Amino acid sequence: MKLLLTALCAGLLFAGCASQKNSVKQSEQQNAAEKEAGQTLTQPASLPGRAFNHSFLNESHVGQTVTISGLLQKTGTGFKLTEDYKMRSAVSFILTVDDKDEALNKALLSRLESECSVTGTLTEASSKWTKKLTVTSVN
After folding, report:
1. What is the DSSP letter of 101?
2. How high is the pLDDT of residue 6?
């Protein structure tokens, strides 16, 4: 009886581990497919409940669309959005906005010094903690 129970527990443990490996593998494959297709980057499924920032973005992600949230501030010549601004892991995005797009500029000005989300195209990611983004919309 003990042998049967031990074998059953070992089988369940093995099946659970195999299932988790498949889930992680599928998630990695999906992320790779999204990168190739130039789709929007989202929070990795392997990080539920953990703080998430875009410090992982690098030059290979340039040209992709990302949505970021954080504290919007005015700089001397434009805007800066700081993700995780209360943490040591803060990532700053220098925002580029078309001067002719008055609606987008007004939307950013109305959200100064508050938390907001912006969507745009990543234009530079040479540093882990500072990136550049061309804004396409303010959420």
Report:
1. -
2. 75
